[in-house]
Fold this protein.
Amino acid sequence: MTQHLPISTPLSDWLIQALASTGMSQAKLAEEMDALVVRKIDRSIVNKMTLGKRNISAEEMLVIADITGFPLPSDVQVSPTVSIAGRVGAGAKVPLFDTYEKGDGPQVECPPGLTPHGVVAVEVEGDSMEPIYSAGDLLFYTRDSHEGVPDEAIGYKCVCEDAEGMGWVKQIKPGDEPGVFHLISLNPGATNLWNVRLKWAARVRLHWPVELVKRT
């Protein structure tokens, strides 16, 4: 019978015991976690977790417990969380994924009715999207590992990344030739962008005002 660890057990120790219980290597755990969580997971990140140098998010704890079959410390109450991947702007260029080191971005409580699996959030920067979105608001979206602009994104408000690595929140419309897109600003007074090449785009699934955001 597997022993339930007390809640006071450091999570680094819990992870070490979870690995030991299955004989799983850090590299193997990283590989399986990387396929299940949004943020990039590699062996170095798992190693930092075991050394207590990297926090383990609620989502990661649940995934580790599922992969290893090792129970969480007794009485742990895990609230689902979502990672903030970076910041986006509308009227000004904002590097989308240069805000936080991989795996070290802050976590926020997952809004009610939204599953945390496969979902990430970006934080609105600046006031160029007023009155629709305000600075500090979070936009939640789902993006798989594939690049490109899916058909479902056309005509809708999307988080997107251009060829220069800048993040935007715009309505996406087909461009004048294949492979380029018109990015329509949400604020009528802001500048539209024409015939832009995009690395990827994902529809905004949920807008969460800054006053409702609960960081963990």
In short: The chain has four helices and ten strands.
